[in-house]
Amino acid sequence: MQNPYLPYPVRIDEITTETEDKNLKTFKLVFINPEDEEKFNYQAGQFAELSVAGKGEIPIGIASSPTEKGFLMFTVNKVGLVTSYLHNMKAGDIMGVRGPLGNWYPLGYHGRQEYCHHRRRVCFYDTSVLHYIYAGSCQPTKI
Ligand SMILES: Cc1cc2nc3c(=O)[nH]c(=O)nc-3n(C[C@H](O)[C@H](O)[C@H](O)COP(=O)(O)OP(=O)(O)OC[C@H]3O[C@@H](n4cnc5c(N)ncnc54)[C@H](O)[C@@H]3O)c2cc1C
Question: What would the pLDDT profile of 41-80 be if each residue is shown by its tens digit?
């Protein structure tokens, strides 16, 4: 069994600056060992611990959808020590991802309708959930 405290090594593939003040960035991460992607079997709504060597670990919602293969995405607001260090990292740098952790949304057909109907504001997890919903054959009718 995989030790749940050991992070999977990942490479930063791409960094997107999301806001004019540059305090919000999305990190696209690729597993260094392709077999680790199989083990990191996540659901929309879960989070992971991002680890930056020598700085620490931070819980961040998974912004990519399980239907998107070959990478993970995380949108990170710069607030303190680890997030500031992460914001200074570059494409090609190596870091760690531990998880997936936490619960997920029940997204059967009725779950999707409920989710879209009741969600009042978009947060980072929602990009994962919305990508997942729109990748499905059966789309919600109420948004
Ligand atoms: C389950 C979960 C999911 C999350 N998902 C996301 C996500 O998707 N995206 C995201 O951006 N965040 C997310 N967060 C929040 C994120 O984990 C924290 O913002 C992150 O851990 C902060 O780490 P840090 O080392 O940068 O901040 P720290 O250095 O630990 O600082 C923590 C807080 O203290 C404040 N602080 C730090 N230093 C000072 C100082 N000198 N003076 C005054 N205040 C100070 C910071 O503003 C910050 O609010 C999530 C949290 C949880 C629990």
Answer: 999 999 999 999 999 999 999 999 999 999 999 999 999 9
Q: Which residue has the higher pLDDT, 38 or 127?
A: 38
Pocket of ligand 1, beta carbon within 6 A: 47, 56, 58-61, 75-77, 79-83, 102, 124
* Enclosing domain of residue 86: 8-101
CATH number where 67 lies: 2.40.30.10
pLDDT at 119: 55
Section 22-38 average pLDDT: 96
User: What pTM was estimated for this model as a whole?
Assistant: 0.84
Q: Domain for residue 32, yes or no?
A: yes
In a domain, 15, yes or no: yes
- What is the domain count for the chain? 1
Instruction: State how far the Cα of 11 lies from the Cα of 102, in Å rounded to an integer.
Output: 23
Is position 120 within any domain? Answer: no
